[in-house]
Design goal:
With about 550 residues, the protein is of the alpha/beta class. The chain has 19 helices and 21 strands.
Length: about 550
């Protein structure tokens, strides 16, 4: 009997291990307990009960889940009393804003959360627990039984900011491509889409008061950008989003619990704007100004000493604030040459007036005027400002500490500097979180920056907030991957370079560092290939093991 018991225990352990391997959640939950036994089986018609919530937001979240799985499964849900429900959504106000509890037995599913976001993330997890075919957009006929394993999960994100930035100033991808990016983010519980909409090489958002920004600034005479031996190609190229397009995409993101952070990069990286309105913005009106055809950093920056330029920036902020309801706006601040300011009499005079000899402080003075303008708005339209970490090179005292620093160059040191000054910070290290860079050294890699060293493993290996003193940690809002498009002009290349590295960044933003392990992640990642194929997303196939 003893031998039989040992054999039975070994078989049971083997069964448990097989089941554990089948649970391939990304990002990895904070706490998860798996139970052996019968799985929960979805019937063709199910009963669901949701607690009351202002605006019926919980029911709305579940309806979205139902719409997502219906094409593949055909499962239908109807409202029921809690005692008779197969799935129960229970309000638990003791949980955090994005936290949830998910308990699955062979008889029912119970989800607890305090806010709609928590229910959304729980249902995102539930969808990942289902067979991968659930991501199909058409009916799946070869699965006769949709089921999920018995499991108990208590989960909440490590960071409140789990972001991805897309640069469309240099290349324009269009609404459908952006929605696909948002879908990728939603799959991995990311919640901040940083939309880089203006650049030297293009202005991508309609501004009613300044129509030339899109009539002139959205177009250039080259699709590819010049760099070294790569010369501008002379092709008429460009595009922009109307304000109706923006509203549509904002809603699409919000339906997936993703907030959009618009970036208007001023006063540097603004040659497209200067080319559109040189009479308002140029430091050297006597020279020709055109939308830039090259990579790199243009010296054609906005003349911050001109009152017309300051008013222009205020007007831009006014229109953008109405389009994007989230409480943040990014004003850039990186790579802003002061060369033309140093040669401009009005700029030199203004520098003396503010009592500085550092031309970088003209940029801070410009931002202070915009900050004061925003502060004068009604509370519902006020925004917190985000800047790249180069603004720390100037005297930031006039801006106070109510700004957020996005740390990219020397990210760890810059983030610590910002936190020590009392500012919030977001970790976005150029290496390895710039996932526009090549993700392998294979000859099949598309043309882009880097040598292929920013692999999935390298991206995963970065440890946010590693070694940061405990007293500074509350200033760290989270993590963000960035995608710059100097070399990337096609949406399929964008997707290829994003995936699966986006999943690695997402896990860094959600999962506690102590729970993160690359071997585990790589094993769990294998299930994502089916999802990517069903979604028709491009991705790095070399990461996946041959079956």
């Amino acid at each position: 009997m003893k031998l039989k018991s040992l054999i039975f225990a070994a078989l049971l352990a083997g069964s448990y291990q097989a089941m554990a391997q089948e649970i391939s959640l990304i990002p990895q939950p904070k706490e998860m307990q798996e139970t052996t036994g019968k799985e929960f089986v979805f019937k063709s018609k199910m009963k669901v009960a949701a607690d009351a919530y202002p605006g019926d937001s919980i029911e709305w979240v579940f309806e979205n889940f139902e719409k997502e799985i219906a094409p593949a499964t055909g499962i239908q849900f109807k409202n029921s009393k809690p005692k008779k429900a197969d799935i129960r959504l229970v309000l638990n106000k003791e949980l955090g804003n994005e936290a949830y509890k998910l308990n699955i037995t062979d008889r029912n599913i119970t989800i607890e959360a305090a806010r709609p976001a928590g229910f959304h993330y729980a249902l995102t997890t539930l969808k990942q627990l289902m067979p991968g075919e659930v991501f199909s957009t058409t009916a799946v006929t070869d699965i006769t039984e949709w089921s999920v394993p018995q499991v108990s999960i208590e989960d909440e994100p490590e960071f409140g900011w789990r972001g991805f930035m897309l640069d469309e100033g240099r290349h324009f991808f269009g609404k459908e491509a952006v929605k696909r990016v948002i879908d990728m983010m939603a799959l991995y519980k990311m919640n901040r889409f940083h939309w880089h909409l203006t650049e030297d090489q293009g202005w991508r958002i309609e501004i009613k008061k300044y129509p030339k920004l899109t009539e002139v600034g959205a177009w250039r005479n080259s699709m590819g950008l010049g760099w070294g031996d790569h010369k501008p190609d002379g092709q008429h190229y460009g595009g922009f989003y109307t304000q109706d397009d923006i509203r549509e995409i904002v809603k699409y993101a919000q339906d997936r619990f993703i907030e959009i952070v618009p970036e208007v990069d001023i006063p540097g990286h603004s040659q497209a704007a200067v080319a559109s309105y040189p009479e308002l913005l140029a430091c050297d009106l006597e020279n020709k100004h055109e939308v830039w055809l090259w990579q790199g950093v243009s010296t054609d920056v906005i003349n911050v000493a001109k009152p017309e330029a300051v008013q222009f920036a205020k007007d831009i902020i006014d229109e953008i604030s109405d389009l994007f309801p989230f409480g943040y706006i990014h004003l850039g601040g990186d790579e802003c040459p002061t060369t033309k300011w140093e040669q401009n009499d009005a700029c030199k005079k203004l520098l003396a007036e503010i009592g500085s000899k550092n031309f970088r402080d003209l940029q801070i003075h410009f931002y202070k005027q915009l900050q004061d303008h925003i502060a004068g708005k009604e509370s519902s339209k006020q925004k917190r400002l985000i800047f790249w970490n180069e603004v720390l090179h100037g005297n930031t005292a006039p801006l106070g500490t109510d700004i957020t620093i996005m740390a990219w160059v020397g990210a760890n040191a810059a983030a610590k500097d910002a936190a020590q000054r009392g500012m919030e910070t977001i970790l976005s290290p150029q290496i390895p979180y710039y996932i526009n860079r090549k993700q392998s050294n294979l000859p099949t890699e598309p043309m882009s920056q880097g040598n292929g060293s920013e692999t999935v493993e390298a991206v995963y290996a970065y440890q946010p907030m590693n070694g940061v003193p405990e007293n500074l940690q509350p200033k760290y809002k989270g993590v963000q991957a960035n995608f710059w498009t100097e070399w990337v002009c096609e949406a399929d290349t964008l997707e290829y370079l994003m995936l699966p590295r986006l999943a690695a960044v997402a896990e860094a933003g959600w999962t506690p560092q102590a729970k993160r392990d690359y071997t585990s992640f790589e094993n769990r990642l294998q299930s994502q290939q089916k999802v990517y194929n069903l979604k028709d997303w491009c991705y790095g196939k070399h990461v996946f093991k041959k079956k």
